[in-house]
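Spend some time on the protein that follows and explain the fold to me:
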Amino acid sequence: MAVLLGDSGDENYFVREIEKNDGCCLQMKQCSTGDVGCVVWDAAIVLCKYLETRQFYEPQNGVNKWANKRVLELGAGTGIVGLMAATLGAHVTLTDLEDLQRLLKINIRDNKALVSSGSIAAKVLKWGEDVTEFLPPPDYILMADCIYYEQSLEPLVKTLRDLAGPETCVICCYEQRTMGNNPEVEKQFFQLLLQHFRSEKIPEESQDPEFSSPDIHILHLYPLA
């Protein structure tokens, strides 16, 4: 995962390179200044590499659970997680606030050559607001490190409830942080979430052996009947 210099055509960016299992690399531009969505966080890389694990993707044995699946990423930031899913054959919508759309579209442009059977687009979605244009429910909702602002917790859970159908699997990856009010925010999030979703924790041995950490957790969430 090398950090490279940004090119002169897109000033104020620097690039993080994420190698896929097939040897190809996602070239992810990050902003040198900006909010939390402007950089590739460790939880996003852990989730990316989890999407490539054998339970989901083992093409030599005919396994590809991403092929032709409808995938929506919440709080996409740089778009790295959704882009990985698109390179594996999923039809992906990256969503985030208006001010992240330029970065998302740049990263889609720069990695388009790696997306063949899948597809990818970026759209604005503010948590808590109407989700009609994103329905019917996707097969998967992906979210990496979306648990950080106390004021965003209720809107985030509302959006998850509005988007998820009976067959939707939400894959949530987050880094457990102990500084400041992070533990309380995390506690509040799960108190709200588990009123509406069943949670299944993914053990480290089911994650990528190189890209995993005791502090970074992956959950599968399923709507309660």
About this structure: The longest strand covers residues 216-223. Confidence is low (pLDDT under 50) at residues 1-9. Residues 82 and 182 are 25 Å apart (CA to CA). The first helix runs from residue 42 to 51.
